[in-house]
UniProtKB/TrEMBL annotation:
Protein name, entry field: Transcription initiation factor IIA gamma subunit C-terminal domain-containing protein
Domain of life of the source: Eukaryota
Transcription initiation factor IIA gamma subunit C-terminal domain location: 31-72
UniProt organism field: Rhodofomes roseus
Alphabetical keyword list: Nucleus, Transcription
GO terms under biological process: transcription initiation at RNA polymerase II promoter
PANTHER family according to UniProt: TRANSCRIPTION INITIATION FACTOR IIA SUBUNIT 2
Keyword Nucleus tagged: yes
Compartments (UniProt record): Nucleus
Upper classification of the organism: Eukaryota, Fungi, Dikarya, Basidiomycota, Agaricomycotina
Amino acid sequence: MPMADKCTRLQFDKSLADTMVKSVKNKTTLKGHLHTYRLCDDVWTFIVKNPTFKMEQNELVSAAKIKIVACKNGDAIEAGKK
């Protein structure tokens, strides 16, 4: 991967994590069938089939399948403590 691409992706990840910590206040509940999960290099990947998200206002959102990728990021954790 060229250096410019890598730097752009790293900055995007940091900006997204910072925005999520500072701006997103709504909570949601997820129900579904956990089809696959794995942990590799501090990155969790979950495949959930037939997920249903229940939002705070009791709004339901469904899909056939979703993929969740969660990474350990010290900068995101530190941003949440501020």
